[in-house]
């Protein structure tokens, strides 16, 4: 959030931005230079720190309450894990796993479409999805429609050509997907269990928190079929709240058919997230087929 903040020490009013972080502290920063102005707890019983040093921006740790170093033990280093090495544990899989898969898919699609001037594969990686996307680097801004218009104009097209191109395009909004957690099975649709190493995931929500519709879902199902990988369908229970992606934003800004997809994972947003060792390759294959359909 953005607001004018009066520093209690100096009385000076500055243009500030605030964020309630998952670590239990609310941060106030100077919007003009990013400097930390204040940090204070907004939840009770924070056991890992007493506060923040405003000069260094570092926490004042409570040593006995700090979590251990996850790389200190041989079983804590990022990489393959699990009984048979079929899992991958690493920080920020959401959404670096998709960024990796998207880049690999774009490279493969470019080679597959060599000489095909009618199709232009495009990869856009936005920032700030976890804080609402309404920033200069987020997905909820004019960058994508403006970029698409400039692509058409640079090829000698006009506004009519732009609208025809949009009507013939498809947006694949790719983000990681929640696998069915064995401790919270009742939170998932009983007929739509999502398995680690089970293949890419099509995401559907009746309330529109995911942008997938029938044409987009069919396109992704066909892409998975052409790629030779299984497809899973994640459906949010209609009586439960649902997170969202930039898919609905992209669909609203461009008017292009959009489908929300992902790769299954557990422990999303934790210090070390987990996905299947087989899923990244299947994810790349499906996204390649989306960018360069047979």
Explain this structure to me?
This protein has a 5-stranded mixed sheet, with no helix packed on it. The chain is an alpha+beta fold and 294 residues long. It contains 6 helices and 15 strands. The termini are far apart.
Secondary structure topology:
Layout (H helix, E strand, L loop, with lengths): L1 E5 L6 E8 L4 E6 L5 E6 L7 E4 L6 E3 L17 E3 L5 E4 L2 H20 L30 H12 L4 H9 L2 E5 L2 E2 L22 E4 L9 H14 L4 E4 L11 H8 L2 E6 L1 E3 L6 E4 L2 H13 L3
Parallel strand pairs: 9-13, 10-14, 11-12
Antiparallel strand pairs: 1-2, 2-3, 3-4, 5-6, 7-8, 8-15, 11-13, 14-15
Tally of helical segments: 6
Q: In order across it, which strands form the biggest sheet?
A: 7-8-15-14-10
Radius of gyration: 22 Å
Measured distance between first and last alpha carbons: 45 Å
| Strand residues, percent | 15-25%
Give the topology string: H per helix, E per strand.
EEEEEEEEHHHEEEHEHEEEH
Major β-sheet profile:
5 strands, mixed
Give the overall form.
globular
Helical amount: 25-40%
Low-confidence stretches: none
Q: Helix/strand-derived class?
A: alpha+beta
Number of separate strands: 15
Mean pLDDT: 87
């Amino acid at each position: 959030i953005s607001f004018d903040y009066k520093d209690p020490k100096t009385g000076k009013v500055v243009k500030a931005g605030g964020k309630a972080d998952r670590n239990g502290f609310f941060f106030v920063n100077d919007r003009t230079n990013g400097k930390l102005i204040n940090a204070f707890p907004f939840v009770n019983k924070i056991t890992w720190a007493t506060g923040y040093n405003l000069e260094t921006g570092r926490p004042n740790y409570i040593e006995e309450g700090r979590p251990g170093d996850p790389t200190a033990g041989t079983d804590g280093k990022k990489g393959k894990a699990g009984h048979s090495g079929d899992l991958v544990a690493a920080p920020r899989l959401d959404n670096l796993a998709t960024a990796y898969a998207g880049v690999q898919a774009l490279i493969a699609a470019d080679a597959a479409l060599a000489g095909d001037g009618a199709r232009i594969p495009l990869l856009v990686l936005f920032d700030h999805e976890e804080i609402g996307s309404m920033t200069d680097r987020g997905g909820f801004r004019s960058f994508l429609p403006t970029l698409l218009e400039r692509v058409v104009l640079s090829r000698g097209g006009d506004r009519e050509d732009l609208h025809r191109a949009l009507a013939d395009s498809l947006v694949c909004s790719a983000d990681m997907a929640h696998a069915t957690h064995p401790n919270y099975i009742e939170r998932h649709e009983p007929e739509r269990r999502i398995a680690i190493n089970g293949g890419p995931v099509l995401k559907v929500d009746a309330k529109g928190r995911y942008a997938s519709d029938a044409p987009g879902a069919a396109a992704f199902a066909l892409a998975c079929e052409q790629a030779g990988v299984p497809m899973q369908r994640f459906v949010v229970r209609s009586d439960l709240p649902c997170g969202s992606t930039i898919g609905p934003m992209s669909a609203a800004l461009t008017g292009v058919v959009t489908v929300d997809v992902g790769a299954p994972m557990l422990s999303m947003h934790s210090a070390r997230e987990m996905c299947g060792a087989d899923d990244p390759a299947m994810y790349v294959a499906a996204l390649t087929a989306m960018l360069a359909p047979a």
